[in-house]
Write a structure and sequence with these properties.
The protein is α/β, with parallel strands linked by helices. It is built from seven helices and six strands. The protein has helices at 17-21, 34-47, 61-69, 95-101, 107-110, 118-133, 145-155, and strands at 8-12, 54-57, 77-78, 139-143, 173-178, 185-192. The longest helix is centred in the middle third of the chain and has 16 residues, at 118-133.
Length: 198
């Protein structure tokens, strides 16, 4: 990987109570747990040596607080397109509960009744990707799990559905870049939580 290529670093927010219990947390604006705050600080130590032309965060407090505790609150710009998937009728539910209503449901394939469709989230991610590619330098994003997985899929030019294969844990770091040319978008790093060990 050539160092001259732009790298987009994706930081998922630290733990929240609903992330811990597996409840779908879209637009519900809940805080980090104490563990989540510790994760955010550890993420900040990992990111300290990075150089970023721009830093963006979701306006939701779980991402914005992670950004702040990681040491980027004073330079971050709020981007409303970085909010998590709007789960609509499925907000606050666990996957098993959703499957009782809609067997076989998969957010990356079916979207959410009363919330965002796959087409909606794909269009939102495309706006983010277009803005990222217009920035001449490395960029850091703080956001939530499903929207970051969609951004990764759309960075690759792939269907949103591949997001179901990209597990993403709280407070992990991932990186998007290019392989040989800017016409070859690639995932450089994914779901890396080495900074959370020990």
């Amino acid at each position: 990987m050539s160092a001259e290529f732009q790298v987009v670093s994706l930081a998922r927010h630290g733990e929240t109570e609903w992330a811990r219990t597996g409840q779908h947390t879209g637009l519900t604006d809940i805080p980090l747990t104490e563990q989540g705050r510790e994760q955010a600080r550890a993420l900040g130590k990992r990111l300290r040596s990075g150089r970023f032309e721009r830093v963006f965060t979701s306006p939701l407090q779980r991402a914005a607080r992670t950004c702040e505790l990681a040491g980027f609150g004073n330079v971050a710009e709020v981007d409303p397109d970085l909010v998590e998937w709007n789960y609509g009728d499925y907000e606050g539910l666990k996957t098993a509960e959703i499957h009782q209503r809609h067997p076989g449901w998969e957010v990356f394939l079916n979207g959410c009744p009363g919330g965002e469709s796959v087409a909606d989230i794909s269009a939102r991610a495309d706006r983010v990707v277009a803005r990222l590619r217009a920035i001449p330098g490395n960029v850091l994003l703080f956001s939530s799990g499903h929207i970051l997985r969609v951004i990764a899929a759309r960075w690759l030019g792939a269907d949103v559905g591949i997001g179901r294969f990209l597990m993403l844990s709280t407070a992990t770091l991932s990186e998007l870049s290019y392989e040989h040319r800017v016409s070859d978008p690639a995932i450089k790093l994914w779901n890396d939580g080495r900074h959370l060990e020990g």
